[in-house]
Amino acid sequence: MALRRPKQTKKSHLAVFLLVEIPRTNDKKELAAEQMFAALHGILKPSRELWREGLTQEHISFEIAAIGKRIRFYVWLPAHLRTFVEGQIYAQYPTAQIHELDEDYAARDLEQKVIYSTELTLTDDETIPIKTFASFEVDPLAGITATLAKLENIGEEMWIQIIARPIGDEWHKRGSKTIAKIKAGKGNAFGGAGAMLGHAITAFVKPPTYDAKSPGAPDLSERDKTRVSGIELKSLKLGYSVKVRVFYAGNDEATARLRMQAIVGAFKQFNSTNLNGFQSKFASFDRTKLNEYKNRDFRDSGFILNIEELAS
What is the pTM of this model? Predict the structure, then answer.
């Protein structure tokens, strides 16, 4: 009987760590970032190919670190993707300077007494969009970097890690299902028991009206119309599975909580009462969480953002 070759379940790749410097005079807008993420989506491999070779879809980590009162931007990626990724960055940001680093800031032995971390997740169903740059008069990234610039104490550091893994268009079907639930009057499932009770009271005071074009279907509220429109627009663009980690290093737990509250608050500029937004989850003083950041682990499904949301 012939021996079978063991199936390969995982293939490791050497990674490179890049420093990306953008001149202060850069006049590129968020649309350039969206176009960059659209091009980077090209690293997506067919699921059948991944299954056959026993691999997982590769991801890229985009990071911001405030260390020693300096804010820098980094990209971590599999080494064989370097030429492609650098090309896409230069295509949208011709004046950028990219340098490969021998040392990873996250791999250092930190001397700070306190390490505080959290993950950012969505407040609602992942098919519902967050606010994007089209809704802002100024660059939303400025609100985040301004918060990082306020680190004043000696030894304070804060890191933000945004890991992006391209996904196929199958996720669009989830959006269609969410829309169907909303149109069927079940969209309140996202709002919890309070929302359900509120609509029940409304129904008692004012019986629902029905559209003659769709017998039995209740009229949509303005909020639900906004959500349906948002889901439809989100699904028109390429998607990524995303994970966002935030780390703080310092010497005082109270200060750590305040700093984290401030940076989470900066991300809440993308929140909308009618749509989606960010919330903090899994906050911890566990130093071993550093390993997940350092290794750029992305073992779960994260949450879905399209290229416009990711660019924002």
Answer: 0.83
